[in-house]
Amino acid sequence: MKKIRLIEVKSELGAGTRGASLGVDALRIACLNQKSDYFQRFTTVEVPNLNDVLFEKNLFPKAKYIDSILHTYKRISATVEQTFELGMFPLVLAGDHSNAGGTIAGIKATYPDKTLGVIWVDAHADIHSPYTTPSGNMHGMPLAVSLHEDNLDCKVNDPEPETIFFWEALKRVGTDQPKIKHEHIVYIVTRSYEKPEVYLFDKHNIKNFTYPEVLAKGIEQVAEEALHRLKDCDIIYVSFDVDSLDSKFSKGTGTPVEVGLNVTQAKELCRALVSDPRVVCFEMVEINPTLDAENTMANNAFEILEYTTEGILERLSKEA
């Protein structure tokens, strides 16, 4: 039977608010509090981070710390690739969502000839580039990197040549080609985005299952439709940002947004998605315990993580 390998990525270079590097440890504390043996059951590898550069001056206003994020991407990509080579299922627990670009690079480096689909459960679209970003925070850019999408039609910034150099280098981590296509992205409960991102949704007919749609259809049907929209994909990666939860449940994240999933819905959704045999990687990101004195976010996230992992193990044992 295929085993799960936990990949811990404590990098928070892409976030606007500090503290996401502590998210994995917050999950471990939640695990202890819930008297679970979760972290004893799986092999864990930690990807070295470069968070110490946050004490230095950022030189790239349109893509903050992009030089260090490039190194981080390479490390994540190599670790994901190695996990597949060991015949294991990579379950990524990461700091900020910029790290997802490294995860996608690692999946594509392993499966260069397979069509990769992405299910992005997140309050935010994360499809900005240095040419369109309002903040320069790179957790808003991982999908654009993976698509090789500059979105110059909506250009509002003139990034410096050094920034463009690193942006182009980021695109080439794992493989030189675009790793995904626009039509192979499905968003679930995305509700905070800017005009350049909406432009790409419309231009490429990218599907977003809004929260009202989730309520109307139910979790099971949304999961089914999301997976069906990726029917042309050989493999699928599911990325779960904890800010997909309603802000009532997600105080402990850098950018909480109202009107999102509750914990039960998130558990059912993730479990339904990972039951598809094409899902090769699951990721959870953006837990920030510094914003959350009670560790509520991590406790909720751990509940979702444990339930989703059971689903993965159940599926893997059937496939064995």
Automatic annotation (TrEMBL):
The record's similarity note reads: Belongs to the arginase family.
- Report the PANTHER family cross-referenced here: ARGINASE (PTHR43782:SF3)
Against SUPFAM superfamilies, the record matches this protein to: Arginase/deacetylase
Organism of derivation: Nibribacter koreensis
Name of this chain's protein: Arginase
Query: So, what pathway does this thing act in?
Result: Nitrogen metabolism; urea cycle; L-ornithine and urea from L-arginine: step 1/1
Show the InterPro entries listed in the entry.
Arginase (IPR014033), Ureohydrolase (IPR006035), Ureohydrolase_dom_sf (IPR023696)
Q: Pfam families from the xrefs?
A: Arginase (PF00491)
